[in-house]
Amino acid sequence: MTIRVFIDGAVGTTGLEIRERLSGRDGIEQIVLADADRKDARKREDALNSSDFVILCLPDEAAREAVAMIRNERVRVIDASTAFRTASDWTYGFAELEPGQASAIAESLRVSNPGCYPTGFLALVRPLVRAGIVPHDYPLTVNAVSGYSGGGKSMIAEFEDRDTAGFTDTAYRSYGLSLEHKHVPEMQKHARLEHPPIFMPSVARTYRGMLVEVPLPLHAFTRRPSIEAIENTLRDAYKGCPLVRVVPGDVGTVSMEADAGTDRLSLRVFGNAERGQARLVATLDNLGKGAAGAAVQNLNIMAGLDPTAGLIV
Fold it and tell me: Which domain holds residue 262?
């Protein structure tokens, strides 16, 4: 059986990555609008309603408008924007996050793709909160750095196009200093935290790759966990998951490009038992498991296909 897939916003960074992962796959027919037709409302609406699956790679408001245009009740939607990530009537598309999450995705009509930063944060934190190792009311912080492709075409031009007014040769910069980043509600809800984490994002002069870090002052917890218990909890949570792995935290450095060019997510636990401190580190590709790879994984699950088909494991 062939499934028909329409990527709305396929000319953007994430959309192009998804199209590349789907290209040439048996059993998948992509509905592609010509450049002249992409802004034709009728033809776009026809594409949205004649597909088996729609993947939205649009800004939030445009994603909401696209969903409202879908009248065919059989069309299933994967949205890569922030628009529906905390919506109660959408399934959160992080298959490995909770027991039974993949089954929920498989049965859903509406799936919200996780954000890239939340993917790293939640993978590290949610199993520990669920196990009672990290208190749900603890004031967590998360430090993260992404490649500039995460900012889409405008940021790519800013870092690459010397002929534009916005070009910068900055090596690294911090942003989100208002503490109102749009990923924070997603992190809080799906980690099931009482308080929003303090989120400190940044961007570096490298095209792709991401490093997300959560420091834990274990000495401040009422029940002080061991470094081994933390690592074992993460290993148990992701046992048998082909895309999420826990690797030994016995290296001197970790590069943000450690999983660039793949659809993997790697987790590491570093710690100092004597001081009662730990550093949880996740690496992923902001365009892979953090965006396009996650969308393709969700499509595979919803369509009853091999979850890793078309992905770089």
Answer: 116-286
Q: Residues 90-105: what's their mean pLDDT?
A: 98
Whether residues 258 and 120 fall in one domain:
yes
CA 75 to chain CA centroid, Å, is 23
**Same domain, yes or no: 95 and 144:** no
Domain count, the chain: 2
**105/145 same-domain check:** no
65-81: pLDDT as tens digits: 999 999 999 999 999 99
Q: What pLDDT band is residue 168 in, cutting at 50, 70 and 90?
A: confident
Angle between helices 227-237 and 116-130 (to 10 degrees): 110
Nearest alpha-carbon partner for 55 in 239, 300, 310, 307: 300
In the prediction, which pLDDT does 251 show? 85
Based on the domain organization, do 97 and 149 belong to the same domain?
A: no
> When comparing pLDDT for 222 and 63, which is higher?
63
116 among known catalytic residues: yes
Of 70, 116, 144, 210, catalytic: 116
| CATH number for the domain harbouring residue 17 | 3.40.50.720
Instruction: Give the predicted TM-score (pTM) of the model.
Output: 0.95
